[in-house]
Amino acid sequence: MTQPTHIRGEHLHVALSLGASGLPAMPLRAGKVPFGNCRDCADNACGGRPNMKTPGPCTCLAPCHGWAAATTDPDILNSRVWGRAWRQSAGVAYHPGGAGLTVVDLDNEDAIAWADANLPATRTVPTARGEHWIYRGVMPSANGVRPGVDIKSAMSYARWLGPGTGPLTTLPDAVRALLVKEPTPVRPTSVTVPAPARGGRCPHRTPTYLERGIAMAEQRITEAASAVHATVFGAFLAVLSTHGQCGCLTEAHTARLFAAAQAKGESLRHCTDAWTNALTRLGM
Prior knowledge:
Elements lengths: L4 H16 L4 E5 L3 E2 L39 H4 L2 H9 L2 E4 L6 E6 L2 H10 L4 E4 L4 E6 L5 E5 L2 E4 L5 E2 L9 E2 L2 H4 L30 H16 L5 H16 L7 H13 L4 H14 L3
Parallel strand pairs: 6-10
Antiparallel strand pairs: 1-2, 1-3, 3-9, 4-6, 4-8, 5-6, 7-8
Helix pairs in contact: 6-7, 6-8, 7-9
């Protein structure tokens, strides 16, 4: 259903007010979703602004690319190219991370009860089904960190539902900890370690070389921000290509690699498949 003209004008007014206060704003269409990419940016032909680390308009200056279109620039918000989006808008959103904020989106009464018992009080905003708890600080965004709880901060957007009540509190460790997964127990006996070659002798000058290689692979997996499957396979491949035939790689080493991958959400099956595919790629 098309919004009345005066409401659509109010959306622009709200966005300009948000921008003036330092909150990067953007229009939302029906369904609380961003506007799609324009013709020039379809299928990320322009490079895809969300691949950038900072919000702002694409060179097309349209409200493209979701959260990354959010801006505080009044000339852009009030520009002709954004006018069409405002005329079709059903709401206003903002980029919390761009303003140094994190929104804990509590979607129901159980989630609110959990927050009351586990998180420090902060500014709260009522939503249709729950509450937004807003903290000062930035962290990665994630959905479903626990039942009824989403995190909206860096590279995400939150619907603007009003300024809320209460003072802002510094982002607590209890919220950051929601993104930390406990490693899934690893069964290294399911991993096939290549048989020693060269008489079981390692050609490397010191065991430190292997330890450094395992540690680097663990770090590579742990720091993966995207494409976790590919990163895990690449790390396994790198370790096997260097140490897979010299007799120094043990099940204890592979268990460390599996643990790092499973801590990023990989299943044991995915780990085993990646390991097997790496062995196949190397002809082992």
